[in-house]
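DM from R.C. (forwarded with permission)

"hey, sorry to bug you on a friday — could you get me a structure for this? deadline for the figure draft is monday and I only need the backbone to look sensible"
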Amino acid sequence: MEKTIQRGYAKINLHLDITGIMENGYHSVNTVMHSLSLCDTVVLTRRADSEYTVKCDVSAVPVGNDNLAVRAALLYKQAVSCACGADIYIEKRIPMAAGLAGGSADAAAVLRGMNELCGDPLSEEELCAIGSRLGADVPFCVCVSAAYATGKGDLLHPFPSMPDCTVVVACGGEGVSTPEAYGMLDRLYGGFAVGCGYVPRDMSALRESAERGDVISLAKSMYNIFEEPVLSVRPVAAGLRSILLENGAIGAMMSGSGPSVFGIFTDEKSALRAAEAIKQTGVTPHVCKPIS
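My reply, with the result:
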């Protein structure tokens, strides 16, 4: 049977801010996302019928129609009127519910894989349009690398890739639901209504640092509006961030709405030392590279 192997890459947010509320009720965001070499492996094997199955090496991952990978396959089939089905196997490496877009990465990998199995009838832009129906991060995960995103996070614009560096990612397992995180912000900033007084952060220093290839300046220019309220009630994540900084990270921050944190290192030796310190807490670290 015809088969394709795809990678679903984790993402981190180098900048994440809220600019208001859209007419549809979603928060409008300004965010800079970047792909990391930390990834899930998604294997798609074409079936003779039009059915889809999902298996995963992590038992906690749902494998029914509520799985984003299955939903991605079904939406793809509708878009191309394709009778092709597939057996989907996901080898998880990206921590779940961590603000690293693991589910979105798998859905994007399925969209790319189904497109390959069907002879690539859809463009990347068309795959992104399907992805936006699944979640705000899916279009970015289809494209991979670096992007500045607006809207609900699904409108992508060019952004320079990160300079060469090493990134250590860690997630202590403290659950943070996206609605819970947005609720924290709404209470802090009056629901981001007009006249609430909140002014979004300028991100020009981040862009200029990336354009110059200045990783130290870039690390000092990062911002995440969710970090302060979420880390105040997630002590494990806050502790992991401190460990990264104490062991040589030039910058460390929470990704997305958390609870994962990441640190940026100029040398791999320091990154490995920080990873070892994190291991001592019982948390599994991931040492990886930005994808450019």
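R.C.: lifesaver. The domain at 166-288 is CATH 3.30.70.890 (Alpha-Beta Plaits).
me: no worries. The longest strand covers residues 27-47.
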